[in-house]
Amino acid sequence: MTIAERAVTVRQLPRILNAKQRRLFLRDVQNSMAADRPRVVLDCSRLREFDSPIAYLLLCCLEEAMKRNGDVKLAALPAGAGAILKLNGVGGLFDVYDTTADAVSSFHKFPAGAVVQPPEPLRSHRGPESAA
């Protein structure tokens, strides 16, 4: 049995995001999620500022992925970003990684505690045959 690996899309957030740039970035991310079960890593390494509107943008990206049964992971958050995510009540919604490579590779690993079991053989559920 072979399992085809789906691609992981990496999007790098720009250094500064004003309101217009946030809308354009979200539209770009939405357009990259045409496939079912999108896997997206948002690279935050270039961000100079991290505030509530950016936390909301990340939440919107996650929402778009979840609509398609996918996921968004964050990489290289700037210092203090975790506190802002928690302050906005969304800290626990994201998987956060130190590097983009770690975030990408996390999509290719089984979750901790996952057990893969072979399917059970099919059994006949026929009742006793009656003689008529």
Level-1 CATH class name: Alpha Beta
Shape: globular
CATH architecture: 2-Layer Sandwich
Number of helices, where a helix is a run of at least 4 consecutive DSSP H or I residues: 4
Q: How much helicity do the residues have?
A: 25-40%
Tally of structural domains: 1
* Classification by helices and strands: alpha/beta
Q: What is the H/E string? A: EHEHEHEH
- CATH homology superfamily: STAS domain
Mind describing the biggest β-sheet?
A: 4 strands, parallel
CATH topology (fold) name = Transcription Regulator spoIIAA
The overall pLDDT average reads 85
What amount of the residues lies in strands?
5-15%
Radius of gyration: 21 Å
Strand order of the largest sheet: 1-2-3-4
Key features?
132 residues; 4 helices; Transcription Regulator spoIIAA; alpha/beta; 33% helix; four-stranded parallel beta sheet
Present the secondary structure layout:
Elements: E1 9-12, H1 19-31, E2 39-43, H2 52-67, E3 71-75, H3 81-87, E4 95-97, H4 100-106
Helix pairs in contact: 1-2
What does it look like?
This protein is of the alpha/beta class. The protein has one domain: STAS domain (Transcription Regulator spoIIAA). 33% of the residues lie in helices and 13% in strands. It is built from 4 helices and 4 strands, in the order βαβαβαβα. A 4-stranded parallel sheet has the order 1-2-3-4. Strand 2, helix 2 and strand 3 form a beta-alpha-beta unit. Helix 1 runs parallel beside helix 2. The N and C termini lie far apart (46 Å).
